[in-house]
Amino acid sequence: MSGCILSGLCRAAGISRQGYHKQRREREREEVDEALIISLVRALRAKHPRLGGRKVLMQVHDRLRGAGIIIGRDRFFAVLRKWGLLVEPKRRAARTTDSRHALPLYRNLLFERKPTAPHQVWVSDITYIRTDGGFLYLSLVSDLYSREVVGWNLDRSLDAAASVKALRMAMAQLPANRWPVHHSDRGSQYCCREYVDVLRERGLSISMTEENHCYENSHAERINGILKLEYNLDLGFRNERQARAGVSEAIFLYNHERPHTALKMKVPAAVHRDAA
């Protein structure tokens, strides 16, 4: 742009030539900043496709600061909104609990016991994974204090044997001198003799929901929801092999890379290891 034309435009806009060039440099800098922000966010979302914006900012903060970019939460969210990178909520999945049975039930011990360290309370739940060949069922055992998934199993059956496999995986990492309370809903898989006998053989106390099922086992259901809704396990797979690989990757990323607000933005595996 020629000097005369630029001077005329600046006078019409009520700014100096120096002010115009300053604003232009600032706009160019913002474009460069946005390009780096979007690049980092897309790289993170490639592994954590539905990680919330606040957690994303925490994850990329140090790299942005190292590049000289200081950005607050409001502006960061504005950039995500501009580029269509805000996460829209998904609907929760249907329940898989069948509590209509005559098997023995146990009272809720969590009313009187809150964990202060790992290996004190486990929570268990089951959710379904859709494939082109039918449903698979994911059994999870998680540590209530650290939120780490310590045992899991993916199976075509809802039988107790499938849940026992997840339980035995959890027991394999349990120190010999620890006896966590095992908490679950009233599903027949957890009430049956096969499952209860494994718990008793290891000396674990048994706790179950009583009245408000969805609230009394909310931590376990929350972990199920994160794995399905944030890592797209709810979208379905072509076959069991693909589903197993997807579930394994989702659990690894959840345990080792996803920060939790309840853990002061630390990841479950680190809290489980350090606190234990």
Molecular structure report:
The structure is a single chain. With 276 residues, this protein is of the alpha/beta class. Helices cover 49% and strands 13% of the residues. It is built from eleven helices and five strands, in the order ααααβββαβααβαααα. It has a five-stranded mixed β-sheet, sandwiched between helices. Strand 2 (134-143) and strand 3 form a beta hairpin. The longest helix has 31 residues, at 17-47. The chain is globular, with a radius of gyration of 25 Å. The protein starts with a helix and ends with a helix.
Radius of gyration over alpha carbons? 25 Å
H/E element sequence: HHHHEEEHEHHEHHHH
Strand order of the largest sheet: 3-2-1-4-5
The low-confidence runs, each spanning 5 or more residues with pLDDT under 50, are 19-24
Largest sheet: 5 strands, mixed
Shape: globular
Strand content: 5-15%
User: What quaternary form is this?
Assistant: single chain
First and last CA, distance: 66 Å
What is the helix content?
Answer: 40-55%
Number of distinct helices: 11
What is the number of strand segments?
5
Averaged pLDDT, please? 81
Helix/sheet category = alpha/beta
For this entry, give a set of tags.
276 residues, alpha/beta, 11 helices, 5 strands, 49% helix
In short:
The chain is α/β, with parallel strands linked by helices and 276 residues long. The chain has helices at 3-13, 17-47, 53-66, 73-82, 160-172, 188-191, 193-201, 213-216, 218-230, 240-256, 268-275; strands at 121-131, 134-143, 149-155, 181-184, 206-208. The N and C termini lie far apart (66 Å).
